[in-house]
Design brief:
Blueprint lengths: L2 H16 L9 H13 L4 E4 L2 E4 L29
């Protein structure tokens, strides 16, 4: 796959992920989406509630942790105003 195609695929996936509501306390839909994606890729996934751990340590490669959260702040009235 070309660099441009990889970039376009990444952008499309990020836009799709951002379209899944995940307000604090309601992250299940986004957790479901991400869990399904990584399981479909054959990655090991451990799920605890709406938290995910994807991947496993590999003795042949360095381990890198990317840690984040799935929840967002609730939208405000200003978020619905066209700019």
């Amino acid at each position: 796959m070309s660099d441009a195609a990889l970039r376009d695929d990444l952008v499309a996936r990020l836009i799709a992920q951002c379209a899944v509501p995940s307000v604090t306390g309601a992250e299940a839909a986004l957790a479901d989406t991400l869990e399904r994606r990584y399981r479909d890729l054959g990655e090991p996934v451990v799920r605890v509630g709406d938290s995910l751990v994807v991947g496993a340590p590999d003795a042949d490669r360095p381990t890198v942790l990317l840690v984040g959260h799935l929840d967002t702040v609730p939208p405000t009235d200003a978020d619905t105003v066209a700019r």
